[in-house]
Amino acid sequence: MAALVSSPREVFSEAVRAVLETWPVLQIAVDNGFGGLYSRQKADWMADAVQQYFHDNSDLEQDEVEDFLSELMNNEFDTVVDDGSLPQVAQKVCEMFQQCKQGNLAEVKQQIRTLVQKKTSGRAKATPMKPPTEENSEDDDNEESMECDESGSSAAVKQQQPSSSVPTQEEEKDEDGWTVVCRKK
């Protein structure tokens, strides 16, 4: 049976785990094995490392936490986080640490429950695309598509003498007036 009274350190540890488990960048890295065979274990270790980082360093600023998380993601998962989520994750962890430090454990536990609910209900899964049906193919016919044809139409192609600076290329004009530069075969 779980203890009725949790220490701030235990609650903060749960909070860090909840935040990281709902961080899409980390979950994509784990799901796709960016950390190798032991990606799940690395993610678990990462939660412990972040929690320990807060307890070992007093008065951490958000940018320090961002740097630490970024370094962990880069070193452990060969992943550079550039989707803008890093500041949000760092801010959330910093806020929860301050709340635990101030003794607002009930509020932090509520935030953890909210994150766990978000994790279980909002987890995005990749699903294969459905093969095109007649209904879908009608929509595709209406869309403008780019066609690539090596030969081009003879009326629209105008060959020019290659310049001396680029002797291995030909220039062609297509119907729309664009100049296409191709290598000679």
UniProtKB/TrEMBL annotation:
The keyword Iron does not apply. GO terms for biological process: rRNA processing. InterPro entries: Pre-rRNA_process_TSR2. Signal peptide: none annotated. May be involved in 20S pre-rRNA processing. Belongs to the TSR2 family. This is Pre-rRNA-processing protein TSR2 homolog. It comes from Silurus asotus.
